[in-house]
Task: inverse folding
């Protein structure tokens, strides 16, 4: 009788060992899947940071260009004295061009400093 009970316990232990092995295999598969998802998420996060950095660089310039674009650079028609020479056009740069460059660099620096401060504050 004791041998029968031991045999049953042995069968139950083997069945439980099989279930545990199956659960371990499933856990390993899920772990591998989660690891690959985390890697993809990290890669996507890097690309998002790069795009955000590029947008931070170009945002002040595009804003100021849209504000100042009307009179910064003018391309007038041929001057009367050069009309007989060729079809060249003369490019006139406004006196406020230095202001555009100065404010653009200042705003870009401020946005970069603000972004740096914000990311350091959240860590």
Result:
């Amino acid at each position: 009788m004791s041998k029968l009970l031991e045999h049953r316990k042995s069968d139950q232990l083997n069945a439980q060992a099989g279930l545990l092995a199956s659960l371990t295999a499933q856990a390993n598969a899920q772990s591998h899947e989660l690891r690959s998802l985390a890697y993809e998420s990290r890669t996507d996060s890097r690309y998002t940071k790069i795009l955000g950095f590029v947008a931070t660089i170009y945002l002040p310039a595009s804003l100021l260009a849209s504000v100042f674009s009307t009179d910064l650079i003018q391309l007038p028609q041929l001057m009367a004295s050069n009309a007989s020479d060729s079809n060249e056009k003369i490019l006139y740069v406004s006196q406020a061009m230095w202001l555009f460059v100065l404010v653009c660099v200042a705003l870009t620096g401020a946005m970069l400093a603000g972004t740096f401060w914000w990311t350091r504050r959240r860590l």
